[in-house]
Amino acid sequence: MVRHLRGEAGAGRMLPFVIEYRGRLAGQLTVAGITWGSMCSGHIGYWVDEAVAGRGVMPTAVALAVDHCFRTVGLHRIEVCIRPENGPSRRVVEKLGFREEGLRPRYLHIDGAWRDHLVFALTAEELPDGLLARWHRARSQQTGAPGPGSRAPGSSSGRGKPVNPRK
To answer: 144 to each of 21, 56, 147, 150, 162, how far by Cα in Å?
Structure first.
């Protein structure tokens, strides 16, 4: 499996990440299905250890991955496809403000059957300050405290346009 992930990453079709929390393995996130040309998109899949679920680990990891994809890699669109009954994964994309686009019937073969998935997506234009900044603002509104990296209204992120190394 590691060999496959490295090969796909080397070919520019996948970005596998390990998620650590307090120095321990806490989960995994993969940007896969990376497509170049007129599409410039990919999709994210993830899992997190139950011991750290609910602590903001996965929304933070997804936000970091999306920002990397848009700002560094040069992708334009990111999708996350989730089984309708998977409430915890749906909460991750809802917290981050992903747009629900619809249902993909019988989308993936899991546990011996073809399973429906809901599609959530974001495009680079929707995140001028990045997804991590949006996530920090949302969390600070919940707690009333300023989030890490928060800026005064109207201030610039200081980052330029994404660069696509494949162009």
So the answer is: 24, 16, 9, 12, 32
pLDDT bin (cut points 50, 70, 90) of residue 161 is: very low
Q: Taking the model in full, what pTM does it have?
A: 0.83
Closest CA to 124 of 90, 82, 74: 74
Residue labelled with tokens 């696509």 = 164
> Where are the alpha helices (H) located in 23-82, listed in sequence order?
57-68
What are the φ and ψ backbone dihedral angles of 147, each rounded to 5 degrees? -85, 165
* Of 19, 22, 23, residue with least CA distance to 49: 19
Q: What is the residue-averaged pLDDT of the chain? A: 88
Domains and CATH numbers, the chain: 35-43+54-143 (3.40.630.30)
Tens digit of each residue's pLDDT (9 = 90 or more) over 82-91: 999 999 999 9
